[in-house]
Amino acid sequence: MTKPASSIPTLQFPNHLDPRVWLLSSGASPIGIALARQLLAHGDSVVFGTNPKEITGSHSHRAADFAVFWTEEVLVKEGWKDRAKVIGLDGRCEDTLRPIVGSVEELGASPRTSALIREQFETNYFGHVNIIKAALPSMRARSRGHIILLTGGHLGTPGLGVYCASQWAIEGFCDSLAYEVAPFNIRMTTVQPNIEVNILTNQITAAAQLPQYTPEHNTAPLFREIIGGILDRLDSAAPSTVNGRSNKHSNFYSALPPDKIASVYPQLSEQTKDPLLAETIHALTAIGGHDNPPARHIVGHEAVSLVKEKSKTVSEELEDFVEVSCAVDIDTDIISPQQRPTDQL
Questions:
Q1: Which of 14, 19, 257, 276 could in theory staple to 290 by disulfide, Cβ–Cβ 3.0 to 4.6 A?
Q2: Edge-to-edge, what's the strand order for the sheet holding 296-298?
Q3: How far from the centroid of its chain's Cα atoms is residue 190's Cα?
Q4: 19-64 confidence digits (pLDDT tens)
Q5: What is the mean pLDDT of residues 151-165?
Q6: What's the half-sphere exposure (Cβ side, CA atoms, 13 Å) at 260?
């Protein structure tokens, strides 16, 4: 899952004449802090978008991490405080990727679990959309800009269906947006890191488990078991925080009991966090502000392998049923080109 310190990639930045300004819409998150540290050291300016409740409320570990970074690095290191600014984002612009764990049936078991689905899209889809809409007029006026969005990719994961749906939705939005803003010299890139990056650096919420979806009755590789194994392997120096309270166990089942809705913030040691985030930080610094950035950037060997395997499966299934697919084509001798709906798309 993580890389040894000796293999962490050396950061690279694209050539640019002037320092750049970065708006980090989740500035108090572990990846926001890690990225800002590199950007400020490089000479760029950083605007930290934060949820005031997150850095002053019950999520004390995240507030503490940001406070330590601000007081011991931003305010101390030469020139950093002049190039750093914190702004508050309201709920409409909150875009922290908070995964909801649960099968489709589990998330429809009660009004409260159904509400989790709406909350997932409010944060993971509409939060991104609202921030992008707010930033576009300024970028368009300057005839330049680069929007980079971290996503969960376009691969389905059992037990993580609602989270995946929100990620597919925002990727479709970004694919369309890229064409719309290209004439204004605004670039759009979606970055797909390993799934652990988004999952383990944000609050995880799980719905109550139905008996039919326990390992004893369901052989699908449900994400509840996958994330449990990941958390159990973490060499965490600090306890997790469950529903705002400290929890001495990193074990997913003790942190998130299967009989009720519960949330957990995995607290990662620096020895675990730095290698986990290294590949994604490298990708963001390498493409941010690039003259010709990729529309989609896959991060890490594991993510690349998964995408290749998915593409191979889709291609093979297409070939297996290509005759069936093409058999539905309307005979062009019967309908004139002017009448064919596909010609008008």
A1: 14
A2: 145-150, 186-192, 296-298
A3: 9
A4: 888 999 888 888 889 999 999 998 999 999 887 776 665 555 677 8
A5: 85
A6: 8
Q: Are 126 and 92 in contact (CB under 8 A)?
A: yes
Cβ proximity of 147 and 132 under 8 Å:
yes
3-state DSSP call for residue 69? helix
Nearest partner of 328 among 338, 312, 342, 314, judged by Cα: 342
DSSP type of residue 243: T
DSSP 265: E
The residues near 11 (Cβ < 8 Å, ≥ 6 apart) are 38, 281, 282, 285, 286
Residue 260 burial by Cβ neighbours in a 10 Å radius (0-12, 13-18, 19+): exposed
Query: Which structure tokens are listed for 44?
Result: 């760029």
DSSP 28: T
Annotate 177-216 with three-state secondary structure: HHHHHHHHCEEEEEEECCHHHHHHCCCEEECCCCHHHCCC
Tokens encoding 70 = 């601000």
